[in-house]
Amino acid sequence: MSVEKSDMIVTVLGSGTCVPSLERSSCSVMLEVGNSKLLFDSGPGTMRRLLRANTTIFELDYIFYSHFHPDHTAELVPFLFATKYPDMGQRQTVLTIVAGGGFEDFFARLKGAYGNWVELDPGLVDIIEMDNRAADTRQLKGFTVQSAPVEHNPESIAYRITGAGGRSVVYSGDTDYSENLIALSKGADLLICESALPDDLRLQGHLTPSLAGDIATRAGVKKLVLTHFYPECDQVDIEQECRKTYDGPLVLAEDLMRIEVGL
Ligand SMILES: [Zn+2]
Ligand SMILES: [Zn+2]
């Protein structure tokens, strides 16, 4: 029996959308890579799901935002406010927020509304804006992040994280069919891809199971996770729709699902 452990672990915190659901919280994924804990998007309800995954907000080193829609960003305000709660005072390390161009302005507008309720002590928040018009790369703590613009909002970007051991995870965020996403996902161990609505209900700016499958096949990814399911997805056979275009390992995301990358 193999006792091999991956140095990259994904936990789906929210596999849903803006639609309130007891089963599917709004969009969020945690990725543990080496000694860092990364959050991808923070829709409403993310902190409670994080607790279910035995993780506190103070343990997160990075938050990556795919775009600014509320079902992907809304928990940022309560997250920062909770971080300031006097009895906690537990954040000793910098929280780095990574997002596409325009995030500084978005964040400034949140501060305009909430003032010092969302202002952490100096030096505790660091912001990195990735290029939202071209591919971009940064070397961060124990991993590399590559990003590429995708087809949803002007600020929308997808991310590829590569750990020290060489394993890689791609997070699509919201997107329509995207050649950039295919290029970014080439040969990745795991592609976490939005699949908002069934094939018959395709919505502009989003993917369906067979389109996500097509992207995964063209990119040659080793495993595909479909997520960001509107309630209509739970009424049809998502797997069968995806199988029209993709025959590799396939996972339909559920909240609190844990995936060891590359095993
Ligand atoms: Zn969106
Ligand atoms: Zn969305």
Tell me what the structure shows.
The protein has 263 residues and is of the alpha/beta class. It has seven helices and 14 strands. The strands form two sheets. Strands 6-5-4-3-2-1-14 form a seven-stranded mixed β-sheet. The mean pLDDT is 96. Bound molecules: zinc ion (ZN) (2 copies). One zinc ion binds next to α2. One zinc ion is lined by residues 67, 69, 152, 174.
Architecture blueprint of SSEs:
Elements: E1 8-14, E2 28-33, E3 36-40, H1 46-52, E4 62-64, H2 70-73, H3 76-84, E5 95-100, H4 103-114, E6 125-130, E7 136-140, E8 143-149, E9 157-163, E10 168-171, H5 179-185, E11 190-194, H6 209-219, E12 224-227, H7 238-242, E13 250-252, E14 258-260
Parallel strand pairs: 3-4, 4-5, 5-6, 10-11, 11-12, 12-13
Antiparallel strand pairs: 1-2, 1-14, 2-3, 7-8, 8-9, 9-10
Helix pairs in contact: 5-6
The structure holds zinc ion (2 copies).
One zinc ion binds at residues 67, 69, 152, 174.
